[in-house]
Amino acid sequence: MLSDIKRHSQPILKNASAALWDIGDGVACFEFTSKMNSLDSDTMQLLQKSILTVSKSYAALVIYTDANNFSAGANLGLAMFAANIAAWPEIAKIVAAGQQAYKALKYSPFPVVSAPCGMALGGGCEILLHCDAVQAHIETYTGLVEVGVGLVPAWGGCKEMLHRWSTNPKHPRGPMPGSAKAFELISTATVSKSAEEARSNMVLRDTDGITMNRYRLLSDAKQKALSLVADYQAPQAPTFHLPGPSAKAAFTMAVDGFVRSGKATKHDRVVSMAVADILSGGAKADPTVEQSEDEILALERKTFMKIIRHPDSLERVEHILLTSKPLRN
Amino acid sequence: MQFVLYELLQADKLTSLPGFAEASRDLVEPVLAAAATFNQEVVFPLNRSGDEEGCTLKDGVVSTPKGFKEAYQLLCQGGWTAFSCDAKYGGMNMPKSIHSMVEEMLCSANLSFGMYAGLSYGAYHAIHAFASSSLKDQFLPKLVDGSWSGTMCLTEPHCGTDLGLCRTKAVLQADGSYAISGSKIFISAGDHDLTDNVIHLVLARTPEAVAGIKGISLFVVPKYSLDQQGEAGESNRVVCSALEQKMGIKASSTCTMNFENSQGWLVGDLGKGMQGMFVMMNRARLAVSMQGIGLCEISYQGAVEYAKNRLQGRSLTGAKHPDKAADPIIVHPDVRRMLMTMRAYTEGCRAFGAWVSQEFDYSTNHGDKARRDSAAEFVQLTTPIVKSLFTDIAFECTNLGVQVLGGHGFVRESGMEQYVRDCRITQIYEGTNGIQALDLIGRKLPDKAGRNLRRFFHPVQEYIEQHIANPELTEFIQPLSKAFIRLQQATGQVAVTGMSNPEEAAGVASEYLKLFGLVALAFMWCRMAEIALQKTAADNSGFYDAKLKTGRFYMQKILPQSSSLFASIMAGGKSLMALDEEQF
Fold it and tell me: Taking a C-beta distance cutoff of 8 angstroms, is the pair B304, B284 a contact?
């Protein structure tokens, strides 16, 4: 456990939301320390700093916390307050900072292994998607749940899910199937109820590990990270061929069916359409034209900034903050 | 007022709200004109004499200054006591936003006189909102026609802000009424000779009540018990034992009231007294903000008249009136600075106050619940701001009014110093301005995860986004935009520090409230300038041109205060608390 390390050492880096520890054998551990392990600009700032530090002095990085829940995502209280005072540029900055930090993590010159347990939702799930490997506790509940609070994944979650499903050898090829599967999972805020299920949703890959014993999780993650050190090479940046407006039309029809049958609400439709905008590649997307990772990230940011200004999305965020329950508006 | 109501805020649309169908422009304009005439001809002439004479207490009877009784009768006959009251009880059902304009005129003409009717409105609303239908039937018609007046009895010798310490007792009687015993101080309009009866709304504690604020209940206690016909009958053992000798509002009777087993009736539920009191209080806070504007306006009028007529020295750029022995002092830049400050503040506050009052009307009368709720949130957020900002500004403006007159302003004869003295209490009563600032940062900001803030910040942000590219408005929008960003940052700072260190946030609360208020006035000035720009070319009266020039002055000479306030807010409150108590 990290608490064993903490007993006889000081953090290498630390701020109000996170800390970086030396866990031996050339491996560093990035720990969330904020209330409920929520993610904010301090988290992203320390993550960027940690990447520099680990690049210079360590062989690998593990992202782990002793807490029962890995992270339930972004600090919604802060986002809500910023939205209430119309501090849109500040919110845009936080979104961009998260994208940059997660991207830097993905392309860092050392292997990164996340070790989630309990809840890894929203931004807490997106960080898993940017790691070289995941060593998950068996009881890990993970997924991109942003639409539940009226938002869209915008820390690279849409982009990574698109990439995973489009390149999954077991899944049909072509621009549409990958987009459709990502849309199905994200627009319904699907949460995997176990690490096994997370594999079938492609939040975890077949090569990712599962640990049964909670007390072994950090150790297993560290071993996994060390196993990746030799000849480590950062992943290649993916490119995308996305289906464009025709896919959005298909997604719309599907959602309208859910609305008609009462399984989706009026605002579910609005948020789903925002997700569809991203996953179809935008209004000008053409399956024959290649799009870069940065283009998809820009689309995520643009869509997020639009949807967070919607009064019904703000109602959803506010409701979950005040009642801890989702609002079906 | 017409500009604010009908060009800025499209008050005509109020007629589409349930209950306000009759509040059309055709009706409202002559009503406002009639209010102006009444206040100018009847109420204003009693202002100076009322201040000199004051109220007197002799043999347990309080007398108001000469002329007040006759003027009060005319006030009632004119229907001004019934203006925004429920038609069911004889009221005129006029919107609050129109009533606020009438209140401003009344307080401009004679703040002390205006207090009597103002307190009655507070009592009326608490009874209307919370009392049983039989109590409403007994008391409301008489409060509405003005034959009885009302009070708010909160303060006791040992408790003002902290009303949980209240000791006045209420003991249940066999007939379901309560015997009220205790002493209340600082009771405005507590006793007087204007009406047949005085209806006190009294905070008291039943013997079994829990300690603190949750043990406080609200009771209605008349000065005279009601007879069989519902008229004022026998004495109810409610006695004024003393009148306060005050700095200002001397013609308003400020009484120490003793209740000796006086018969009273519960208003609302036991232990929910503060709920009823807050209904009165919140309306009263809005009314006090109107008092602030009224005093700004009357002081400005006095200062302008003097500055145009007082001949002293010559203009620095050469004689402007060579036919006269000297130029009027209005040619001097420093006199202009004072007059423009008064004017820009007054018109800005009037616009902002009217916006708040109109939202108040939406919060009570709109047919759509969501719109009612959002309006109520806006009013909750802005009530402490307008109360505190307008009265602080009024104190500054009335002081400037004295300064424009120089020595003549300092002597009583000019009447200008009375406005300063009368104004001083507005910063104190209905919750001191410091308490308003704490209410803003401690309650209104964090409430509902900050939702109240959305009702102000979103329309302002949308307005800026919509107009930022308009070159004609640049000189107005740019400073608003900069100040608004400062307000956003300061709000974030106050919210973050407030969560971890409430004392730190409380240390900057007053400055934050002022910053908020100045940005709100800047927003109103932008909107007024936008209208004036469209109309100025075809206007020969100079009205819209003057609006633009005054708006420019606000943006260039007053709004920059937002920079220093921002710097002070960001510096935090540590230096306030650094000295040990012993070092004082």
Answer: no
Of A86, A88, A322, the CB nearest to B449: A322
SS (H, E, C) B434-482: HHHHHHHHHHHCCHHHHHHHHHHHHHHHHHHHHHCCCHHHHHHHHHHHH
**Spatial CA neighbour of B134 closest among B3, B265, B34, B40:** B265
Q: Measured between CA atoms, how close is A58 to chain B, in angstroms?
A: 35
Instruction: Supply the pLDDT for residue B108.
Output: 97
- Confirm if A121 and A142 have CB atoms less than 8 A apart: yes
Contact between B450 and A88 using a beta-carbon 8 Å cutoff: no
Q: How far is A299 from A307, CA to CA, in rounded Å? A: 12
Helix (H) or strand (E) holding A209: strand A209-211
Partners of A85 on chain B (C-beta within 8 Å) are 450, 453-454, 457, 488, 491-492
B130 pLDDT tier (thresholds 50, 70, 90): very high
Cβ contacts (< 8 Å) between A306 and chain B: which residues?
none
Whole-structure pTM value? 0.91
Ranges A243-252, A307-316, B241-250, B270-279: which has the least confidence: B270-279
C-alpha neighbours within 13 Å on the C-beta side of residue A66: 9
| pLDDT above 90 (res B383) | yes
Longest alpha-carbon distance in chain B: 83
Token readout for B527 is 């909107």
Q: How many CB pairs under 8 A join A and B?
A: 42
CB-CB under 8 Å, A314 with B450:
no
CA angle B514, A86, A324 (to 5 degrees): 110
Contact predicate A68/A29, CB 8 Å:
no
B197 touches B262 (CB < 8 A): no
* Mean pLDDT to the nearest integer, A9-31: 96
Distances (CA, A) of B483 to A136, B480, B552: 49, 5, 15
* Cβ-contact B241, B256 below 8 angstroms: yes
H or E element in which residue A19 lies: strand A18-22
| Pair of tokens at residue B245 | 């000798």
CB atoms within 10 A of CB A328: 12
- Tell me which residue of B560, B122, B29, B553 sits closest to B333, measured CA to CA: B553
Q: Could you read off the pLDDT of A89-108 as tens digits, one per residue?
A: 999 999 999 999 999 999 99
Residues A175-220 pLDDT 10s: 889 999 999 999 999 999 988 899 999 999 999 999 999 999 999 9
A199 vs B444: CA distance, rounded Å: 46
Which residue intervals of B272-332 are DSSP H helices? 273-309
CA atoms of A41 and A74, how far apart (whole Å): 9
Confidence of residue B120 (pLDDT cuts 50, 70, 90): very high
In B165-316 the beta strands, taken as DSSP E runs, fall at 169-172, 178-188, 197-205, 216-222, 224-226, 232-235, 238-243, 254-267
Task: Summarize pLDDT for B453-474 with one digit per residue, the tens.
Answer: 999 999 999 999 999 999 999 9
Residue A239's DSSP bridge partners are A292
Check if the beta carbon of residue B192 is closer than 8 Å to that of residue B119.
no
Over pLDDT 90: what percentage of chain B? 91
The per-residue DSSP string of B127-144 comes to HHHHS-HHHHHHHHHHHH
- pLDDT band of residue B135 (cuts 50, 70, 90) is very high
ipTM above 0.95, yes or no: no
